[in-house]
Design brief:
- The protein has 135 residues and is an alpha+beta fold.
- It has one domain.
- It is built from 2 helices and 4 strands; from the N terminus they run αββββα.
- It has helices at residues 2-29, 99-134, and strands at residues 46-55, 60-70, 76-79, 91-94.
- It has a two-stranded antiparallel ribbon with strand order 1-2.
- A hairpin with a 4-residue loop joins strand 1 (46-55) and strand 2.
- The longest helix has 36 residues, at 99-134.
- The two termini are 18 Å apart.
Length: 135
């Protein structure tokens, strides 16, 4: 039944966006994490990549998290000679996490999650009405 497929597809979308939101939370939580030794690299921003995968049970493509990777890019440096991770010149490498980008990712994940939740709720309602009609 197509309504069953719609439920599976929506649930997969919600699971993928939940993972994305978890990664955003990790990035925000670690935006001030520096290395522990002089010149050490700090936390590197993590990213989520999605891909379509065939769900044999549903007989259709659904979204899945294909990879959680790290974002390339240079680390910012700030002058803080008393910090334990400061290099010989007194600079500390800071994570490549931009709070504004993370908040935008968070809101996009929230909108996608809510859209999938709406589809799930609508589909469930249609199934309930179908069952009621068959009684």
């Amino acid at each position: 039944m197509d309504l069953d497929r719609a439920l599976r597809i929506s649930a997969a979308g919600m699971a993928a966006q939940s993972t994305r939101l978890r990664v955003v939370a990790e990035n925000l939580a670690n935006r001030d994490s520096t290395g522990g030794t002089p010149g050490a690299d700090p936390y590197r921003r993590r990213t989520v990549t999605f891909a379509n995968r065939l769900d044999r049970a549903a007989g259709t493509d659904i979204v899945r998290v294909s990879r959680i990777g790290t974002a390339p890019g240079e680390f910012q440096q700030r002058y803080e000679p008393s910090h334990p991770a400061a290099d010989a010149n007194g600079y500390v490498k800071t994570p490549n996490v931009d709070s504004l980008i993370e908040v935008m990712d968070m809101r996009e994940a929230q909108r996608s999650y809510n859209a999938n939740l709406s589809v799930l709720e609508t589909t469930r309602g249609m199934l309930s009405r179908t069952i009621e009609a068959l009684r």
